[in-house]
Design brief:
This protein is an alpha/beta fold and 245 residues long. The protein contains 11 helices and 7 strands. The longest helix has 18 residues.
Length: 245
């Protein structure tokens, strides 16, 4: 696969090292990346229905919703959590809503979504796409598909996903994102309503609550499998095209 200069710079921002033969021609730039538009055939649209937020969340603003999540006891996950992980980023309106797999032990301890090395990689990925989740001009909001860590790292159960989707629905209503980025298999399957492997869910534009959904790898997976960072960049490009259409 060939990469133009801008794509090479974005991959470098994400920490992906091109093969030596190709890297000779690459010039790494340190300037703030600009949004790009890459021509591509129209993606396949898969429409998935999703419930609206229930009355217990429907009228809450963002601070009140965060407080409600911190004391939520809608499912059994509340019994063993240290902290509910509401999410962080843009507080009023987000261009991107990033929905990741369930919190890990570090997220549970801190109450913050995607910290540590995975969070640093996520921030580089967002920067490569012209987005950010920190500062007064944040444009992305990052939140897990369920707000409490399932015990022993197991996948969340349907009732647990149902309980937390009501919160996510209200977050989407308040943030009004232009695109949703589903990071990881569990988030992707929930938002698309499909049970296919992650690789088959990528490369398409799905729908959730009438919002476009792009599926990609979780940053923690990319730390273990850095060769797939190039594929993750393809997914970010698809998200950019979807927003710009």
């Amino acid at each position: 696969m060939s990469w133009d200069q801008r794509q090479r710079a974005m991959l470098a921002e994400m920490g992906y090292r091109l093969p030596a033969a190709s890297a000779v021609a690459a010039e790494v730039v340190e300037a703030e990346p600009e949004p790009i538009v890459v021509a591509a055939p129209p993606p396949v649209i898969v429409r998935v229905a999703a419930p609206s937020a229930p009355s217990s969340f429907a009228n809450l603003d963002m601070p009140a919703l965060r407080e409600a999540v911190s004391s939520c006891r809608a499912c059994g996950l509340c019994e063993q959590r240290r902290n509910a992980v509401f999410g962080n980023g843009a507080l009023q309106q987000a261009q991107w809503l990033v929905v990741a797999d369930p919190p890990d032990e570090g997220d549970d301890a801190s109450g913050e979504a995607l910290g540590g090395d995975a969070g640093r990689l996520l921030d580089r990925m967002l920067s490569a796409a012209g987005q950010r989740r920190t500062g007064d001009e944040a444009t992305a909001f990052v939140t897990p598909i369920v707000k409490c860590r399932p015990p022993r790292g197991r996948a969340p159960q349907p009732a647990e996903l149902d309980a937390c989707e009501a919160v996510l629905a209200r977050q989407a209503e308040l943030l009004r994102p232009r695109v949703v980025l589903a990071m990881g298999l569990q988030a992707a399957r929930r938002l698309t309503g499909l049970t296919e492997p992650l690789g088959k869910l990528r490369g398409r534009v799905h729908r959730w609550r009438d919002l476009p959904v792009i599926v990609t790898y979780h940053p923690a997976y990319l730390l273990r499998s850095p060769a797939d960072k190039a594929g993750a960049w393809d997914d970010l490009c698809l998200a950019l095209r979807t927003v710009n259409d």
